[in-house]
Write a structure and sequence with these properties.
The protein is mainly alpha-helical. It is built from 5 helices and no strands. This is Vesicle transport v-SNARE 13.
């Protein structure tokens, strides 16, 4: 079923139930209160007529298999609205209370009221189903929002982990540079040590030769 049609239908059912209660209460009122209530009922009937026109346009724009069922519902809603208009006429008649009691004694009107009550019962059931559908939609939206919040939280955690990894990478890069510098320093020191070893070795050899020469000249040419 069209979601647009369901929205109009829910509004109509709510207005119809509201107008039915207003009509029942209006029979017991007098004076300005009755006039004000009748004015509110007429305004509600105009709103209901607008909703029926909108539902009719929406239903006729759908596929034939769906359109037939929706138009059948519309006929019931139109009949219900006509009954409400008839009740408004009885309310605004000079002897509304007497006329209401006389109408209730007539079998035809009793049948009409029974049909109207049955229709309103179906309308209330439809309203209840629509309300349940609305609750399911709200639950779905709530779940979607919770899922979205969870996704945002996960993305934030991943962003923080990425920042931590980048920081660790930068730290390791700095350590690598320090290790490279230290390696170059150690290489330079090792070369200097090797050079110093050669120098010391040369000095030792020279000293040994000098000692040998001294000993040679001392004992040979003595």
């Amino acid at each position: 079923m069209s979601e647009v049609f369901e929205g109009y239908e829910r509004q109509y059912c709510e207005i119809s139930a509201y107008l039915s209660r207003k009509c029942t209460a209006a029979f017991a009122l007098d004076g300005e209160q009755k006039k004000q209530t009748v004015s509110e009922i007429k305004a509600g009937i105009e709103d209901a007529e607008n909703l029926i026109r909108k539902m009719d346009l929406e239903a006729r724009s759908l596929q034939p298999s769906v359109k037939a069922a929706l138009l059948a519902k519309l006929r019931e809603y139109k009949s219900d609205l006509n009954n409400l208009k008839s009740e408004v006429k009885r309310i605004t008649s000079p002897n509304a209370k007497i006329a209401a009691r006389e109408d209730l004694l007539e079998s035809g009107m009793a049948d009409t009221l029974a049909v109207s009550a049955d229709q309103r019962g179906r309308l209330l059931m439809s309203t209840e189903r629509l309300n349940q559908s609305s609750e399911r939609i709200k639950d779905g939206r709530r779940t979607m929002l919770e899922t979205e919040e969870l996704g945002v939280s996960i993305l934030q955690d991943l962003h923080q982990q990425r920042q931590s990894l980048l920081h660790a990478h930068n730290t390791l890069h700095g350590v690598d540079e320090n290790i490279g510098k230290s390696k170059r320093t150690l290489t330079f020191m090792s070369r200097r040590m090797d050079r110093n070893k050669w120098i010391i070795g040369c000095i030792i050899i020279v000293l040994v030769l000098a000692i040998l020469l001294v000993l040679y000249f001392k004992f040979i040419h003595k």
